[in-house]
Design brief:
This protein starts with 5 loop residues before the first helix and ends with a helix. The strands form two sheets. The protein has a five-stranded parallel beta sheet, sandwiched between helices. About 35% of the residues are buried. Helix 5 links the parallel strand 3 and strand 4. The chain contains 17 helices and seven strands. The chain has about 350 residues and is an alpha/beta fold. The protein folds into three domains: about 130 residues, P-loop containing nucleotide triphosphate hydrolases (Rossmann fold); about 60 residues, Helicase, Ruva Protein, domain 3 (Orthogonal Bundle); about 130 residues, Zinc Finger, Delta Prime, domain 3, CATH 1.20.272.10. Helix 5 packs parallel to helix 6, helix 8 runs parallel beside helix 10 and helix 11 crosses helix 13. It is globular, with a radius of gyration of 23 Å. About 60% of the residues lie in helices and about 10% in strands.
């Protein structure tokens, strides 16, 4: 069974007891961990319980199909449902999972499989999507509107109320990993102390200069400036830190949308300084001169072309089997070449 959209939220709130195996996968590693944890605790509240929780290494499952079937069929000595968990799974466990679906053992144990990004043709993903007793939960990097709702909910859980500008800033700067979002909101709560109302100034003080965000912005600014060397270095660093390519592409979309908005305001009669000054959230002052230079490199037709290419790249990441890292790098290099040609 393939779950999408609101069906995922419904399943997480009340997992179907008929489902015997759940695959949680996707490029947002933090969201994978969060959703897998929710599913796991719906079966066993104490995940450290050795009588009801069994963790199997990928190598063991890949090399011994019967071992997985035996674990799923086993009963708890102390009663209650058992959880069998496989972390960091890959295609090598497909045969074992397929065997489980073809001849489900008796009992009510749940198999929980956690994996990274799986393409549309992944055998493991297809096995879970096609099985009546299986469920596949994708964890894609959330767009800004979806992430904004999550941020408001997490902030409310910390007793915080976010101004509109603060919400917009956070949603634009925390795309990529749900665990990072949760950590930054917790850090914001500590910073605010007894004060509960959070404005843009407080958010920028806590989040604005974070090393992770600056590193996410680095390849975007390099691409828009036509700096191939800086772009290559920044991408290598982000890939080494397991940053999701879709998050990088969305950060690029956001940057070029801001360039496009300012160019449109200039075309309507505003000066470049006034148009840049009207940006919300405001531009970090150290980047103002670079942004003004990029405006001279990117006229409106070129910006529309860039935004179209970035949108196409994100779609290709979701619909093709080409590595996301390659698609992202190729797209940013194309944008850098366009910028270089207009220097």
């Amino acid at each position: 069974m393939k779950l999408q959209g609101k069906a995922i939220d419904g399943f997480l709130a009340r997992p179907d007891p008929r489902i015997r195996a759940v695959l949680v996968y996707g490029p947002d590693a933090g969201l994978v961990r969060e959703r897998a944890g929710t599913v796991a605790r719906s079966v066993v509240p104490d995940l450290a319980d050795p009588f009801r929780v069994a963790e199997l290494p990928v190598r063991t499952v890949a090399g011994d199909v019967a071992r997985l079937l035996d674990e799923v069929a086993a009963l708890s000595l102390v009663g209650g449902r058992r959880l069998v968990r496989i972390r960091e799974a890959d295609e090598s466990v497909t045969a074992a999972c397929a065997a489980l679906f073809s001849a489900p053992p008796s009992g009510d144990s749940l198999l929980l499989v956690e994996a990274g990004d799986l393409g549309a043709r992944s055998r493991l993903r297809l096995a879970f999507e096609a099985a009546p007793l299986g469920a596949a939960l994708p964890c894609y990097v959330e767009d800004e509107s979806a992430l904004r709702r999550v941020i408001v909910e997490l902030a409310a859980g910390q007793g915080l109320s976010l101004d509109n500008d603060a919400q917009v800033f956070l949603a634009a700067h925390l795309i990529g990993d749900r665990s990072v979002v949760r950590g930054e909101i917790e850090k914001l709560a500590l910073y605010m102390g007894p004060e509960r109302r959070v404005g843009l100034e407080q958010v920028q003080a806590v989040i604005g200069d974070s090393a992770s965000q600056l590193s996410l912005d680095d390849p975007i600014w390099a691409a828009a400036s036509g700096d191939f060397a800086a772009l290559d270095t920044a991408l290598r660093r982000l890939y080494a830190e397991s940053m999701a390519p879709v998050a990088i592409l969305r950060a690029a979309q956001r940057h070029f949308q801001r360039l496009h908005w300012v160019q449109a305001e200039i075309a309507a009669g505003l000066s470049s300084e006034a148009a840049v000054g009207a940006l919300k959230p405001p531009l970090f002052f150290k980047l103002r001169s670079v942004f003004l230079t990029q405006l001279r490199q990117w006229p409106l037709p070129a910006l529309r072309q860039a935004l179209d290419r970035l949108t196409e790249a994100e779609i290709e990441c979701k619909r093709t089997n080409m590595p996301d890292e390659t698609l992202c790098a190729r797209t940013l290099l194309q944008l850098a070449a366009l910028a270089r040609s207009r220097r």
